[in-house]
Design a protein that fits this description.
The protein is of the alpha+beta class. The chain has a domain of 207 residues: 2-Layer Sandwich (BirA Bifunctional Protein, domain 2), CATH 3.30.930. Helices cover 35% and strands 21% of the residues. It contains 9 helices and 11 strands. The strands form 2 sheets. Strands 1, 4, 5, 6, 7, 8, 9, 10 and 11 form a 9-stranded mixed beta sheet that branches. A hairpin with a 2-residue loop joins strand 8 and strand 9. The longest helix is centred in the N-terminal third of the chain and has 20 residues. It starts with 13 loop residues before the first helix and ends in a 17-residue tail after the last helix.
Length: 318
Amino acid sequence: MVAKHNTWKSGVDLETLKYRSFVMKELRRFLSNRGVLEIDVPVVGRSSVTDPGVSSFDVSSEHFRGFLQTSPEYFMKRLLASGSGDIFSLGKAFRAEEEGPAHNPEFTLLEWYRINWDEHQLIEEVVDLVSVFTPSVNLLKISYGELFQQVLGLNPHNAELSELQSRAEEANFGSWSTGFRSGCLDVLFETFVRPNMPDGLVILFDYPACQRALAQLHSVDGQQVSRRFEVFLNNSELANGYFELNNFSDHQNRFNEDRCERHAMGKFLPEDDLLLLEAVKSGLPDCAGVAFGVDRLLLQLLGAARIDEIMPFSWVRC
């Protein structure tokens, strides 16, 4: 915690401020030079996400009710369905209850979508982008299931829930208790798998079907898995991407499943984003998309221990 009498100051010096500006310019340059159009979307919307792992800020007043957006995803998908083509957004996103050395309630997010690309094509572009800043970084691309099995000796896709729960209890998380498969996998991954990942850039793909979020599913060796990937730099989560779900009824089903899980967790139950659903119904094109944490990238590039060291004004200074 920063001493109270210093909180009026920025958390970064001039050189860090300049480097942050340089990184933002390079991110824009990289995507613009590849023909991706920069767009801007609202940071306040009438709807919020249903993802059980994400909490949003309610900004209701006597005049209206809205939510700070946890990412630009829904607005960007409405643009994609409107015929925008490849697009990116570089701006602020907000998530409630996210504060810590690598978390801040307000953060900078780069999100982009590629029409008629699959997740592996987008993975290659993410690697190219990271290589702009760390050209000699070691790279490991491996499926979620293979890495999970190497570390824990369990197949995350078909192991019994009771077995996953038993192994998760070894983590001594205390309040983690959940009957949901996804929650057990998260505990096991964070406690055992992630600490065993090598330094450098690690790309995990083909996540368990229960962690599909808004990714499409496909079959690998007879097993249903989600076409989702995550990117880690020196064990820090950097990006999360999908081959995007674009089926209307599947979206409705996913939102309903999310609300059931949120209800069991005692969380706020958001309504469906009807405008997003209308966009999907009208024809969301085949595309891959990724959300990329700019502050997380800066943490690694500058070797900082806390987000307060790379962000002009983190929450402790607000």
